[in-house]
Amino acid sequence: MAVLDGIESVLHFMLKVALLPVQAVLTLLELSISFLGGMVLLVTKIFGFMLVVCAVFELISKTGTSDWILEMFLTGVGVAVIPEALVTWGIGGIELLKEFLYEI
To answer: What is residue 62's three-state secondary structure?
Structure first.
């Protein structure tokens, strides 16, 4: 029984050493998504805000059709929200994978 415990501990150590580069790559991927996502989010939030403000101005001035105003408003909201969700879910997924690999 002691021999099996020794073999198990050696295999566990070898697996941890083998997964170390995977953890490093996942950490770099998480940092790059965070950095690039922050820049993309800044641009998309500004663009989405501009679309929503233009839709509100069109609604107030009554120069555009209601379909066009609604489309511009929903596009502005989507442009601002969808990248935020993708970045958040991407970072969260990588963190969950790293936690799973850490438990091994």
So the answer is: coil
Contact assessment for residue 77 and residue 44, using Cβ atoms and an 8 Å cutoff: no
In terms of Cβ atoms closer than 10 Å to its own Cβ (0-12, 13-18, 19+), residue 75 is: middle
Could you tell me the pLDDT band of residue 16, with boundaries at 50, 70 and 90?
confident
Determine phi and psi for 17, rounding to 5 degrees: -65, -40
What is the torsion angle, in degrees rounded to the nearest 10, for the CA atoms of residue 55, residue 57, residue 63 and residue 65?
Answer: 20
Distance CA 23, CA 43 (A): 30
Average pLDDT over residues 10-19: 86
Q: Between 2-61 and 66-103, two packed helices, what is the crossing angle to 10 degrees?
A: 170
- Residues sharing a CB contact under 8 Å with residue 56, sequence separation 6 or more, in sequence order: 73
Determine if residue 23 is left, alpha or beta; phi over 0 gives left, psi from -120 to 50 gives alpha, anything else beta: alpha
**Cβ-Cβ contacts under 8 Å for 61 (sequence gap 6 or more):** none
